[in-house]
């Protein structure tokens, strides 16, 4: 069950390695006729490129995407869309020394066990954050499809190292402010504190975690499938595919467990003929199905595991305890780069379920 | 994409309705030769039966399970195992009045949209908690397979209505205490307070939420699959299939986002030739793969949505705002009944991934 | 990869054993709102019931079907439809003696290897022709869906023991004549000879093979999917699931390999604004997609392997050559019983692909 | 249900277009540790390259394969293996004129319907025989895995335009002779006649069909899965993915329907402790499972549809009957190029089922 594919109707298969020739993906099931304009994919990739601010890795990748199949005369044809992104700024030297010394917090040790030692250990191989670049490329297509149905998917940072937003931002504030700062935070003043916290961690060779929220607007009700292909279950599944995600919650989430039913239940009312709920503690999903309210999901990211501080590990060849100090270029924090990845993942999952529910309009 | 199947190697398909003839499931992919002893399935079902304590629904179901295929002379044959559980104590009367009035917090409204109105609305149809009975039946088989590999899956309640454990219990405490009280809590003194909180909510016609933790011991390292069939992603997915789950986290979970990398990284050491980590903030999963440490996952359940207090909703036929007061028999809280469901769900998912990783021993 | 499910959009999972409690199936993905009238499923099952003519097994099964989920007030709800058929006229005595002596032409030997000896050997277990009863039950639902799109699926016998039709029958002849005789043959005079051939084989304790053709009328063009989910590939796959099928061909089939391109190519023309082909050597499928012409597929069935004549086999326990003489009740020929099975299998596959192609009308 | 993936355990996804940038595939699920030697993939691709003999298309493609992921230090890592083959000798000019005039026998018309007109019509797009190049590349990996289990997969031509072998060749004759002639025929004297027949057809602007047989030696018994994931069903399915295949049969195949049970049943005997059958009319598969005898499958290919003779078709834009005369470079016959494709397809399917049955040895 080595499986690098997500989805049933819109299927994404990711391939490549962090320090290999390239990373890429095949997106299968995209309806024919979607216009894919010049720069549509690059714009999304640019949002996750490293090296844009001090808070990111200094690895510099142009992330030029090559669409090698599935488009014809600027439109999708229904054939699988393959996109490849060459790896260029690769320095594998630091990885030789730690080949048999699994880095704490990374997948090195279980990956070693799983592959019987035949893994590509350079840069984490396919367990690298670099594998999210093709997810973002696929997400650009998914977003194009969603926009035809008037659906908007917006992710933003709500907490960094325990520093959170002072108040719940409105959708307009999120839209307006998140790109005004490198944190992708709707509250610019808190964003300054968040950035400081990241730089403080960086300065001592440490790293810091974040919580990212993603909102999908205008998803029609009835999307998803009980019992086992829940919309929330699949969104959670694809979010856990993003390296460092350790928790996922919808609407009131964990806080819902501390509410009473009378507080948590979202009561219905009519507004201009449309059924809405007064609150949105469900996060737009009930019984695995969208209910027409905004879908609200939050993903907790652990601090990035690559830190400069010395750590204890085990030499897998010699089977003895050793100390490990990492060099290399790493992100002290996963923002801003994870934000477009979350948007892409949620968008891909939404399209998958909407096709399955017959809710993607003919694009022609 | 109506999909009622979970799994790739061990696949469970659930069918039936809360107030229909029966509920049941087909479990496909179970290896041949597993001994299924008399009472093995019933014992698990008994743990989720209603009517066992004041804190549960008064619906009384014997939940007698009939194994109708896949067993021969007391052992599995590799053929699909079908089990059915007849519905007996069914009273659909209260549901006629609310047929077109979606209950807040329930799946009624999106289910109505999805089915074009042709759903079985009685008792929530297949969006009922009753659909978890076949999951528990399948879980009994999964647990039988896991026990052959020395794997133990234990769920317990760690928080009810905001009342949590005073300290982290040991595995031995959990094993010893959780069945000593109807809350399935390892801390009997806190369990008394939790039960009081449930009864208080019940007395005012309200309901209350919980957090359940599940631990899987002795899972070998290397189980799971990057990038999209993560072990954590699939565990989360199946947990979100359980009605009322709104959040899932592994190890330090959301709290990990507030730690620094140096605190959160689990450093390796050798203990009698076995690679272990000093802490288990990862919850036993790194890069979508098990790392040999206990798998620790928590699911947040919202308060059960059926409450006796009046609520606002919309009449879907007449499209007007109306008030709704529910009668019927409901659980004021999802414990103790959800505890075996969580264990079953995690067990099914683990077997699925272990077969995929070649880690289920020949059972013969 | 024990897999008892077919389909991606309309999925059928079959369970049960020939001499177990029951056989049954779960059909998942059927749209909500289809009216399932009294007797609709039974009528199809009656067509494959044994004991109707001398040319069939004398096993007498009422084949009463119980729909235990997925219907409400006479219509499908979108939930999985489970149907069960109890086994009643079971006599497992003859199977004890041959438990370790695989019958030539049956699946006994590879099934023994696959299950490590833990199979249900009675009546062939799940390798029995009885497993086709639930396929026919599912096919009744599939036919109901197809009829809403004006699609008709008709199977008929075209060859028995080398005796074939004198000339290609018209659709009207097939519709009119196939139920006039126990062979399900559109040429009643040849049907007499075919039946004689079957009885001759039966009288000497032998059996005889057949070729069944299936035609699907009014399938719109563009149904199916390149490269690997061809409509023809999936029809072939489900036909090979029917016990005794050894060959499948479309249109001119094997004969096409003996034609020149200029003879075999189906040239296009317009008839009242509709694109048609002058010939139909493609059997209605090009490049894995329907082309709007009738889909024509033929399945070759080997002679039923259960014969009364003595045969050589190997005792698997004692590992020595032995002789084997079978008793029990068997079909000397697979017609008429296989005819509705072929129709059901093709119908299920068509609905699966039509849903995937967005071509099943909303049934409401 | 646009699906370009085959397999459950070893999964191949094909992408690209005949006249696009490239064709390629992702092979997911290959165990880690398989040595992939220099030239191993190219040698297989060379067998299907065009332009090798007068009987093939004059399109000249070097078919240089680039392995862009999944290999590290000459071995597989368990990660998805992506290979790409650039298109170089592309001349799309002839396709402009016939853009709206579907070629008889090709997928043009249903592909046009399916894609709403947004297909890549150049060279047949993804309905081209060129899409079989990545299948052959994947097959090279599959063959490498099979050879570790001692399994050999051999395809050869047994009939061309009605000219067949004079007698059934032995395995040794097939091994020795099939590469001695451009027909890939084990009977060199018949191969001369077959080649003449192809050239005769070519000379008059016509084409000719063939039957290819494929034999898999040393497949252990018990591989495959009832009821719906039959080994024969899946082999048939993947063979129908090869353009121009119109029929598939196993063992005695269609001829079995003309035999009596006493003739067709393969009786068992012991040979040096191994269970064998005297005949192999089953083609090595019973009940969807391998039985340890050689797997024998035959695929009937229609004459290649591109012929130089004038044909009738319909202009899809103007909706009127028109005449069509094709230019361009085409194969008058599908041999020798289809032979390695059949081997590759069968090999991929075998590995998929062997992994699912736990029968692929650890490659390390």
Give a brief rundown of this model.
The structure is a homotetramer of 364-residue chains. By secondary structure, the first copy, chain A, is α+β, with helices and mostly antiparallel strands.
Walk me through this protein's architecture.
4 copies of one chain form a homotetramer. In chain A, strand 8 and strand 9 form a beta hairpin. The first copy, chain A, is built from 9 helices and 18 strands. With 364 residues, chain A is of the alpha+beta class. In chain A, the strands form 6 sheets. A 5-stranded antiparallel β-sheet of chain A has the order 1-2-3-7-4, covered by helices on one side. In chain A, strands 9-8-10-16-11 form a 5-stranded antiparallel β-sheet. In chain A, strands 5-6 form a two-stranded antiparallel sheet. Chains in contact: A-B, A-D, B-C, C-D. Chains A and B meet through strand 1, helix 3, helix 7, strand 11 and helix 8 of A and strand 1, helix 3, helix 7, strand 11 and helix 8 of B. Strand 11 (245-250) of chain A pairs antiparallel with strand 11 (245-250) of chain B.
Sequence stretches where pLDDT stays below 50 over 5 or more residues of chain A: none
SSE ordering of chain A: EEEHEEEEHHHEEHHEHEHEEEEEEEH
Radius of gyration of chain A (Å) = 21 Å
How much is the average pLDDT of chain A?
93
Distance between the termini of chain A: 37 Å
Morphology of chain A = globular
Query: Per CATH, what is the topology of chain A?
Result: Chorismate synthase, AroC fold
What is the CATH superfamily label of chain A? Chorismate synthase AroC
User: For the report, how would you describe the main beta sheet of chain A?
Assistant: 5 strands, antiparallel
Helix content of chain A: 25-40%
State the domain count of chain A. 1
| Number of distinct helices of chain A | 9
CATH-defined architecture of chain A: 4-Layer Sandwich
Biggest interface found: A-B, 113 and 113 residues
Beta content of chain A: 15-25%
Let me know the number of strands of chain A: 18
């Amino acid at each position: 069950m080595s499986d690098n594919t997500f989805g049933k109707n819109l299927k994404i298969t990711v391939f490549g390695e962090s320090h290999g020739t390239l990373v890429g993906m095949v997106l299968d099931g995209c309806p024919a006729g979607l216009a894919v304009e010049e720069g549509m994919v690059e714009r999304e990739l640019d949002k996750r490129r490293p090296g844009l601010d001090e808070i990111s890795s200094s690895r510099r990748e142009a992330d030029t995407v090559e669409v090698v199949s599935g488009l014809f005369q600027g439109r999708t044809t229904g054939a699988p869309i393959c996109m490849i992104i060459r790896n260029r700024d690769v320095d594998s030297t630091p990885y030789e020394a730690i080949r048999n010394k699994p880095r704490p917090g990374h997948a090195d040790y279980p990956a070693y066990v799983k592959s019987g030692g035949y893994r590509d250990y350079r840069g984490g191989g396919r367990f690298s954050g670099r594998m999210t670049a093709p997810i973002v490329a696929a997400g650009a297509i998914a977003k194009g499809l969603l926009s035809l149905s008037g659906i908007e998917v917006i992710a933003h940072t709500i907490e960094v190292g325990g520093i959170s937003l002072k108040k719940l931002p409105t959708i307009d504030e999120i839209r307006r402010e998140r790109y005004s700062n490198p944190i992708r935070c709707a509250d610019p003043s808190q964003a300054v504190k968040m950035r400081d916290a990241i730089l403080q961690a960086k300065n001592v060779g440490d790293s810091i975690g974040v919580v990212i929220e993603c909102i999908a607007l205008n998803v029609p009700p009835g999307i998803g499938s009980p019992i086992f292909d829940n919309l929330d279950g699949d969104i959670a599944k694809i979010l856990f595919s993003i390296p460092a995600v350790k928790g996922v919650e919808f609407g009131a989430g964990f806080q819902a467990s501390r509410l009473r039913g009378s507080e948590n239940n979202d009561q219905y009312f009519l507004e201009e003929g449309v059924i809405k709920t007064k609150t949105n503690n469900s996060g737009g999903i009930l019984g695995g199905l969208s209910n027409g309210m905004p879908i609200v999901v939050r993903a907790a990211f652990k601090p990035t595991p690559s830190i400069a501080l010395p750590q204890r590990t085990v030499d897998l060849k010699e089977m003895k305890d050793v100390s490990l100090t990492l060099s290399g270029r790493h992100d002290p924090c996963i923002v801003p780069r994870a934000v477009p990845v979350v948007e892409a993942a949620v968008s891909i999952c939404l399209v998958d379920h909407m096709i399955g529910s017959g809710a993607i309009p003919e694009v022609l």
